[in-house]
Amino acid sequence: MAHTVDHSKHLIELASIDRERIVGLLKLARSYDDGAGMPRLDTALRSKLSGKNVCNLFFEDSTRTRVSFSLAAGNLGATVTNLTGAGSSVAKGESLIDTAVTVEAAGGHALIVRSGAPGAAQSIASHVGVPVINAGDGTHEHPTQSLLDVYALATALGGGREESFDLSGLTVGIVGDIASSRVARSDIAAMTKLGARVVCVGPVQMAPKSLGVLGCEVSSDLDGVIGELDAVQMLRIQFERHGSGGKKPSSPPGVGSVREYRSLYALTESRAERMKSGAVVMHPGPMNRGLEIDGVVSDGPRSLIRKQVSAGTLVRMAVLAELLGAD
Ligand code: CP
């Protein structure tokens, strides 16, 4: 039977949690940082979650999130179990909720849930007694992605932001398929709570004006805003959510062709050169190189993309430690 979800015992979304908890998680992640962006693996840290069983329930594909949750749990001494849709009894028709209840009954102490269905993590949290962490639910939210985005951004910019995680005075652009993006929703929530001005940019079908209710500005003119940005988060076109079976359609929503999309919204080398001195480039991954971002930019000196991935392990360690009561 479903029960009310106490969000303090889970991490389902950033929209409904306060700035203080976000900063607390980021500071905890920083306490695990060896100074080079990797976990400081001392004996005390390695045994923090010993005896705990962390279960990855990934009903949608993932590389970064699943690997870094597994590494994060292992770094803290927890055991990790991985379940995917294919190869589990979900393939025989068992529901996600029955699957989660079963994994809890088998001894799972925390459930990391990825699903294509918005609200899946919240639904599961209303049926189990252990912490549930949303690892991405459809177009709703991807809270740990945004924690790692803020961590990587604040650390790269420095000047005290790496300690306070205060983003006041910064303008962050999020460019691309915002309407399909759970990352964008979580980034808007986290970054605006931390004081940043957030501008979402894309063709109107991907960046509708209605996004403004989330607290961001909306523009369809990347060239008009590129010079104002302190950071840009490039997003891929989520072909799998546009009914094209995951294949690149000849024309992305809202533009006449991929070529036109690139000319207006890709972070090409020449467009990146028009960014402010010191402005940084981000991408949550996976990237479509040569479409929304050029390889010379994603691999270039402004890029934080690898640092974002490394920060993922740190922030996921912090979330597991917080929710499993180790910090
Ligand atoms: N950013 C992100 O969620 O990547 P994965 O789909 O590889 O986990």
Summarize the structure.
The chain has 327 residues and is of the alpha/beta class. The chain has 13 helices and 9 strands.
Report on this model:
By secondary structure, the chain is of the alpha/beta class. The chain has 2 domains: 7-141 and 310-323, Aspartate/ornithine carbamoyltransferase (Rossmann fold); 143-309, Rossmann fold (3-Layer(aba) Sandwich), CATH 3.40.50. It has helices at residues 19-31, 43-46, 64-75, 96-105, 120-125, 143-157, 161-164, 182-193, 222-225, 258-265, 269-272, 295-298, 305-323, and strands spanning 53-58, 79-84, 110-115, 132-137, 171-175, 197-201, 217-219, 231-234, 280-282. The strands form 2 sheets. It has a 5-stranded parallel β-sheet, with helices on one face. Strand 5, helix 8 and strand 6 form a beta-alpha-beta unit. The longest helix is centred in the C-terminal third of the chain and has 19 residues, at 305-323. The structure holds phosphoric acid mono(formamide)ester (CP). Phosphoric acid mono(formamide)ester binds at residues 62-65, 136, 142, 145, 284-286.
